Amino acid sequence: MENIKDLKSIEKKTSPVIWTLMIISPFLLFFISLFLGRYIVNPLDVLKILLNQFPGINFPQTWDISAETVVIRVRLPRAVMAALVGAGLSMSGASFQGMFQNPLVSPYVLGVSAGASFGAALGLLMSWPTWVVQICAFIFGILAVAITYAMAHLYKTTPILMLVLSGMVVSAFFQAMVSLVKFAADDEDKLPAITFWLMGSIGKVGLSDLASSAIPMILAMAVLYAIRWRMNVLSMGEREAESLGVNTERTKLIIIIATTLISSLTVSLCGIIGWVGQVIPHFCRMLVGPNHKALIPATLFVGASYIIVIDNLCRLISITEIPIGILTAVVGAPVFAYLLRKTKGGWA
After folding, report:
1. Residue of 297, 328, 323 whose CA lies nearest to 20
2. Which site among 83, 112, 124, 186 is 20 to 30 Å from 217 CA-CA?
């Protein structure tokens, strides 16, 4: 009975107005990003261009053909990927923070970013095609987490502390390998390419990238959404979770697989985008509380909105596009420091 009371105590009533704003915001920002830019397209034309993609709808063409190319082939996949990346990393961060019982961890704590970075750096050093570099980054991201899990798995259990320590070891190893690749890279060509890739960018994402990555990311996010109630129990501690009938090892493995898939796809396509999985869950806990039944959907909407805004700023505030990893750190670090001070480093 005491455990049930603990679960009820984390519930927090959130105003319907806040939920409405959270749900509407990503869709509104998504539409704005399609006509906003150096090449401005009439919002009504954007709406017609989008609707014309559906069978049976055929508005008379009142726009320039270049406008349709910009909207469909450049801005649409970029905006969709920004929303998926923001939602996925935010949900992953919230899931890991619940699993590790620590509101300060990020989706990269198990070494996925370091492993994927090495894979991409290796591919760029070898001058492989872009799609091969992406696959290489994805595989090494998965491999890094697999090594972490194998190191931490002891006697049919995977202690949380062992996961963290193993993640630190694996991250340090692959970061050293990235440094080795950068040391061996050509200063005039390959080293700048590796450095720029590591800073992150959604600008090169196209329709083909979206077609290959959207479904796996959505499925992984759906898994995290489906088991969000177990995260509440897991965040109370493994003994309490087992006493309530939750298979902790299976739940942890499901969370790790889903978050790793999201993070690996993100890093392989967009580079390292930091602070999202730390800042957004913390901010959302202030809005809806630490109950994962509300927190996970809240991070989905707020995270999507956040990265759409940041990506638009990256391409608009300067003549040369700013790498998104720089801007997320510049914005995220002080915001996270403020949230830490406000919550005193604990659950909001």
Report:
1. 297
2. 124
Among 38, 114, 59, 93, smallest CA distance to 339 is for: 93
* Residue 180, both tokens: 């080795």
pLDDT by residue (tens digit) across 196-232? 999 999 988 989 999 899 999 999 999 999 999 889 8
pLDDT at 1 over 50: no
Secondary structure (DSSP) of 114-128: HHHHHHHHHHHHTT-
| The overall pTM is greater than 0.85 | yes
What separation in angstroms does the CA of 174 have from each of 47, 80, 165, 236, 334?
45, 30, 15, 32, 28
Q: What does each C-alpha distance from 287 to 13, 19, 167, 276 come to in angstroms?
A: 9, 9, 30, 16
Burial category of 54 from C-beta neighbours within 10 Å (exposed 0-12, middle 13-18, buried 19 and up):
exposed
2 has a pLDDT exceeding 80: no
The number of C-alpha atoms within 13 Å of 229 and in the hemisphere containing its C-beta is 6
Q: Which pLDDT value is given to residue 193?
A: 92
Q: What is the spatial distance between Cα 43 and Cα 34, in angstroms, rounded to a whole number? A: 8
- The residues that bridge with 104 in the sheet, in sequence order, are none
Provide the greatest CA pair distance for the chain. Answer: 67
pLDDT tens per residue, range 62-106: 888 899 999 999 999 999 999 999 999 999 999 999 999 888 889
Cα 127 from Cα 132, distance rounded (Å): 10
Calculate the CA dihedral of residues 77, 78, 84, 87 and round it to 10 degrees: -150
Measured at the CA of 182, the angle between CA 180 and CA 185, to 5 degrees, comes to: 110
